[in-house]
Amino acid sequence: MNILKLAIAALVLNASAQFAQQPLKLKSERKVPKVSVAFTGGFSYVFSSANGDGRGFSSLYNTPNGNVFNSKNLGMQEGYGLGAVGKFVISKNKKLSLTGSLGYNMFYNTVDNGMNRTRWNVMTLGAGVEYNFTPKQKESVFLGYSLDYNLMFGAWQSNITYPDGTLSNIYTKFKPASRLGMSASAGMQFRFTKKTDVLIGIKGSWVNVIPKQNYYSDEAYSTYMNDSGSNNGIELEGRKNIMYLQIFMGITLPLKY
User: Fold this and answer.
1) What is the DSSP string of 173-219?
2) pTM of the full predicted structure?
3) What pLDDT, on a 0 to 100 scale, did the predictor assign at position 177?
4) Rounded distance between C-alpha atoms, residue 108 and residue 42, angstroms
5) Pairing of strands 78-89, 57-63
6) What 3-state class would DSSP assign to 245?
7) Whether residue 55 has pLDDT greater than 80
């Protein structure tokens, strides 16, 4: 019995000695690229409360200035977007980056039993910053902010009542409009492969901060975006603010270490 106890003690001491000789394995850290690019896709929803009204349509015929087409919330409801964001690390701790972004969003609306439809196209060019709290870890949280240039164009198909009571459906194009806006984002990044990360996040955008306009067009079936208040005899329902929330996901690829 004593021999068995001595043998067990010897084995324990030997195992302890070998364990003490092994270096402690620290949690591995990732190598952060100096330059990277993220490709994303997402679903967007436009806030109706930004204008204090719904997403309905209205149109006026034979006003003092001719035909006037108007829609609440500019006829936007929801849509989809694609984007690419270049990231350039500028801090020694790898947490702060300058960003440049390029994006495309398509918004649509199908209210009033299909009698009114819209489709807006928004192309965005942005510049901003991103802060990553733990860039060297396998999982990290980031915050971003961007100033954006937005080019908007589209069309709607709407019903109209003529003076004799006849109903019709008219296809009207929006003239291209340029707007300056801003966006803020937050998300998480996960290591997928040695050189690839998966990211998910949420972004809020205000598309048309400045300038706002209200112009009359005498062209048939063509009109301006008209997101400002009443002006030049055209009666609209106040200023229109295009604000949307987007849920996105994508991948990040390194370009330079």
Assistant:
1) EEEEEEEEEEEEEEEEEEE-SSS-EEEEEEEEEEEEEE--------S
2) 0.78
3) 94
4) 15
5) unpaired
6) strand
7) no
Q: How far apart are CA 91 and CA 99, in angstroms?
A: 13
In degrees rounded to 5, what are phi and psi of residue 17?
-65, -40
pLDDT on residue 61? 45
Q: Quote the CA–CA distance of 186 and 105 in Å, as a whole number.
A: 19
Q: Which tens digit of pLDDT belongs to each residue from 168-216?
A: 777 778 889 999 999 999 999 999 988 899 999 999 999 999 998 877 6
Other C-beta atoms lying within 10 Å of the C-beta of residue 108: 16
CA distance 149 to 127: 9
> How many residues are there in the chain?
257
Judge contact between 162 and 213, C-beta under 8 A.
no
Q: What distance in Å separates the CA atoms of residue 103 and residue 100, rounded to the nearest whole number?
A: 10
Q: What Å distances lie between residue 131 and 89, 91, 146, CA to CA? A: 10, 10, 12
Q: What are the structural domains, with CATH classification, of the chain?
A: 32-256 (2.40.160.20)
Q: Decide which of 66 and 82 is more confident.
A: 82
Structure tokens at 137: 């870890």
Tell me the β-bridge partners of 234.
231
Place of tokens 């079936």: 221
> Is the separation of the CB atoms in 234 and 68 below 8 Å?
yes
Q: How many CA atoms lie within 13 A of 216 on its CB side?
A: 15
Helix (DSSP H) and strand (DSSP E) numbers for the chain: 1, 11
230 in Cβ contact with 242 (< 8 Å): no
d(Cα 191, Cα 199) in Å, to the nearest integer? 9
